[in-house]
Write a structure and sequence with these properties.
The chain is an alpha/beta fold and 315 residues long. The protein is 24% helix and 24% strand. Strand 4 and strand 5 form a beta hairpin. The structure holds guanosine-5'-diphosphate (GDP) and zinc ion.
Length: 315
């Protein structure tokens, strides 16, 4: 290549701090960049134009060490946190996430089923595929193993496959590795389920913050959170969102909650009433399906609770 030529190429944003961006280029190089011009994406007012996970094109002028981001490709998905409760602006935390791994445990501590379902609803709204990872299987009693297998069958049937592992005892960790390899992954889960342990076992070189920090809503302070993508030595990334447990909830109307339960959404057009709430309406295809065992009772219960919970943390 001519030394005096402007280089134009594609890259992925792996880190942002204020107005500086770290890019990973196609050949595996790392480049610091600034941005030029305005970046707007339809449908969202965001305080930050370029985020971790964005595919961008950049230019690098001869003799310069830092490049300039000149355009962003359309995002296949993104996760946000509201800049403040009243603000119309949202802070996009990361984009183009291939999958979320929800780490759960059936003991010490036990992950509640409703927590799982709430997470899945948010992931559906963000269009992020989810896999469940049952961790700490070394601690499970016979009953817990049975429970895990039941949950596995409920969730895999509706589109969320699961892995069964022990990070501590190195059981089935190869499954996790194969699952995350080559992808952009978000790790979530309630605290104590073993996210840090799992990530460290996958790649001991990573330095990931999985613990939650106090929520800025409580302090009333605006905090800006920068996500970072950590490259796995065997290929792929883990997105680290310091201070954020999984992802924030999406605003949704009560009447659209069922859209995010795939098995409910799939048959809802069979309900007698087009505006059926699937709560107590006659000839509701969903209620019938629950009675016939086609939709799991616990999934339906989570739907009901979300629907009926006026103060749902969700909305
Ligand atoms: P995090 O809050 O999700 O990041 O959880 P940590 O990774 O900090 O793990 C919480 C506790 O669970 C620690 O004491 C870990 O040693 C323990 N732990 C993590 N994974 C396993 C596992 O597979 N089996 C057992 N028995 N303990 C585990
Ligand atoms: Zn219905």
């Amino acid at each position: 290549m001519n030394k005096n030529e402007i280089i134009k190429a594609q890259a992925v944003v792996i880190k942002t701090t204020g107005s500086r961006y770290t890019l990973r280029t196609g050949d595996g190089g790392i480049l610091e960049c600034g941005i030029k011009g305005k970046f707007r994406q339809a449908g969202i007012r965001s305080t930050n134009p370029v985020v971790v996970g964005d595919h961008v094109s950049f230019e690098l002028h001869p003799g310069h060490e830092t490049g300039t981001i000149i355009s962003i490709s359309e995002r296949k998905n993104f996760i946000v946190r509201k800049s403040s409760k009243l603000s119309k602006y949202s802070q996009i935390i990361a984009a183009n996430i291939d999958q979320a791994l929800l780490i759960v445990s059936l003991t010490s501590p036990e992950t509640h089923i409703e927590f799982i379902d709430r997470f899945l609803v948010a992931a559906e709204a963000y269009r992020i595929p989810v896999k469940l990872v049952f961790n700490k299987i070394d601690l499970y009693s016979k009953d817990k193993i049975q429970k895990m297998n039941e949950l596995d069958s409920i969730y895999s049937k509706v589109g969320y496959p699961s892995l069964k592992v022990s990070a501590k005892e190195n059981l089935n960790m190869a499954d996790v590795k194969n699952c995350v390899k080559g992808k952009i992954n978000l790790f979530s889960g309630n605290s104590g389920v073993g996210k840090s342990t799992l990530i460290n076992k996958l790649d001991p070189a990573l330095n990931i913050t999985t613990s939650e920090i106090s929520d800025y809503h409580k302090t009333g302070k605006h905090t800006t959170t920068f996500a970072e993508m950590h490259e796995l030595h065997f290929g792929g990334y883990i997105i680290d969102t310091p201070g954020i447990k999984g992802f924030g909830m999406v605003h949704m109307e009560k009447n659209e909650i069922y859209h995010f339960f795939p098995e409910i959404f799939k048959i809802a057009q069979k309900c007698k009433y087009y505006n059926c709430k699937h709560i107590n309406e006659p000839d509701c295809a969903i209620i019938n399906a629950v009675e016939e065992g086609e939709i799991s009772v616990s999934r339906y219960q989570s739907y009901r609770n979300l629907y009926l919970d006026e103060d749902s943390k969700y909305r």
